[in-house]
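[Automated response] Your request has been received and processed.

Submitted sequence:
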Amino acid sequence: MSAFRLGLTGSIGMGKSTTAGFFAARDVPVWDADAAVHRLYAPGGAAAPALASHFPQAVTGGAVDRAALKVALAEDAGKLKLLEQIVHPLVAQDRVAFLAQASADLVVLDIPLLFEKGTETECDATLLVTAPASVQRARVLARPGMTEAQFALILSRQMPDAEKRFRATHVVETLSLASTDAYVDALISHIRAGRHA
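Generated structure:
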């Protein structure tokens, strides 16, 4: 029986990384889309040679310089689509490799833009982490270097939380660590019980 694929998502500041950590703490393998991008951008990663001809100023020493890439994208917004066309297939390959070697009955796919990119179709169920807008805002603006303008830009690229709630199989409000941890525990049991019913 192949692993049950739970797609984990949530907008910025909703507690997705913390929730992913609760699954990992219970030995549930977690594939992290952001971590995959970091691997691809690192020296020896597949993204550097793929991006070198289109973003020469952002590739140095066989690695992608994220700060330089950000500058290049700010100068030409049209290049974001090009970047996605190059990087997304590489990220998808990384995910396929993870799934091929996962020997667990349940795996978590931590994907920030799960619904935006239609990747939920690759999952058996989805879990949305959410919190009231005021809590989200306070969390995000407390991050070092985060500005109102950056926060607004990030939100503009993400599907509204209400729509994600409508689409998700499961929803957890991350108002406290203890309640989120307990929810993860219960959800794992629920999924495993359903598979072995």
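Summary generated for your ticket: The chain has a mean pLDDT of 91. The CA atoms of residues 137 and 152 lie 10 Å apart.
If you did not submit this request, please reply to this message.
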